[in-house]
Design brief:
The chain is of the alpha/beta class. Helices cover about 30% and strands about 25% of the residues. It contains twelve helices and 16 strands. It has helices at about 5-10, 45-50, 70-75, 95-110, 125-140, 190-200, 210-220, 225-235, 240-250, 255-260, 285-290, 350-355, and strands at about 10-15, 60-65, 85-90, 115-120, 120-125, 145-150, 160-170, 175-185, 200-210, 270-275, 275-280, 305, 310-315, 320-325, 330, 335-340. The longest helix has 15 residues, at about 95-110.
Length: about 375
């Protein structure tokens, strides 16, 4: 049984402001990755909300996104009150986002507990995910404690951050909770192999739980300038004053919550989670998670594959024929075509940077 305080004081903050440049050309500024339907029913963002609703009611779920897509987010999530879909006027990474969200939650509820989650992930075990959240929230619902949901690694991956576990501190609802000794950002492959082999490291999937007061106290200790800016914004009306929010939010430093806070604090713990998690970080990940034909291709029905193996084909209109090619990503839209080796799909974001540098903004 979940405590009454958890039921009535827990708020979710879904971070949905990213651009998803590695999913170009399908992902654009006005239609980023979190609004793509890559697996299952609905977009990644819709799936993120649906996973939470059995635990956290819609009136306590916030979506922080960009001005460019707020209208589309509201259209796709009519169950979320419009005032809880916050449009950020500038991209400032997630530390300012979560600081602003903490002030908004604190305004509503002095005992508010925050669950911060990214919009662009898949979770194959939703029931286990809810059990992990329950345990993490119960442990974090105490002044000073911060909890990261740590993912059990399935491979040595250099694209994720890692958390080093200390001693086991508690077991709640069948979930082990450990002290955290260290955060490490995206280590080299040899180091990642050692981490996974040791059994003492978890992936950091950017899922955190704190009381709103705890997070703001940590901003005061470790990011005093940003803490002052957050207080100024809150006194000016916060997200409820569109004019002041648009004026003050772009002044924040662009920094992640990991660098700003989590790597600096000591009273931090991790719930060790095995929830079938994936951050859906590239077309290669979509390939890995998708159903394949007899030649290990992922392709639409309106396509033809001859002597081709291991390809990922996404086509909105054209009939795509592949002949004698292997391990490619081919993505076609009305105005662009991407072709790259599947093992280079992490570099698609570099192509977007090159387009920006060349001033080809109509393709962004």
């Amino acid at each position: 049984m979940v405590r009454t305080s958890f039921n009535s004081h827990t708020y979710a903050v879904i971070m949905a402001g990213g651009r998803g440049t590695r999913f170009w050309p399908l992902s654009r500024r006005r239609h980023p990755k979190q609004l793509l339907q890559l697996f299952g029913h609905g977009t990644l963002l819709e799936q993120a909300v649906a996973r939470l609703l059995p635990l956290i009611p819609r009136e306590r779920i916030y979506i922080y996104t960009s001005e460019l897509i707020r209208g589309e987010v509201c259209r796709r999530l009519p169950q979320i009150p419009r005032e809880q879909v916050v449009a950020e006027p500038a991209s400032r990474n997630n530390a300012p986002t979560l600081g602003v969200a903490a002030h908004e939650i604190l305004r509503r509820d002095p005992n508010g507990l925050m669950v911060a989650l990214p919009a662009d992930q898949t979770i194959a075990k939703p029931a286990e995910f809810l059990r992990v959240l329950r345990a993490g929230c119960e442990f974090a619902d105490q002044d000073g404690r911060s909890v990261v949901i740590g993912l059990k690694p399935t491979r040595p991956d250099t694209g994720f951050g890692y958390v080093r576990l200390g001693s086991r501190e508690a077991r709640i609802a069948g979930q082990n909770i450990y002290s955290v000794k260290k955060f490490t950002e995206k280590p080299p492959l040899a180091v990642a192999r050692r981490y996974v082999a040791s059994g003492r490291y978890l992936w950091n999937g950017c899922m955190f739980i704190w009381r709103a007061t705890t997070l703001l106290e940590n901003f005061g200790k470790h990011q005093p300038r940003m803490a002052r800016q957050l207080n100024e914004l809150a006194k000016a009306g916060g997200v409820r004053s569109a004019k002041n929010f648009r004026r003050l939010f772009p002044r924040f430093e662009k920094i992640s919550i990991d660098f700003a806070i989590m790597e600096k604090i000591s009273n931090i713990h991790a719930v060790a989670a095995d929830i079938g998690w994936n951050d859906v970080g590239s077309w290669a990940v979509v390939y890995d998670l998708s159903a394949k034909d007899s030649e290990a291709n992922v392709r639409p029905q309106h396509s033809l594959s001859l002597d081709s193996h291991g390809n990922m084909v996404v086509a909105q209109r054209s009939f795509v024929v592949t002949v004698g090619v292997q391990n490619l990503v081919i993505v076609e839209t009305d105005d662009a075509l991407l072709v790259c080796p599947r093992d280079r799909s992490q570099d698609v974001g570099k192509a977007v940077q090159a387009l920006e540098k060349a001033g080809i903004h109509e393709l962004l």
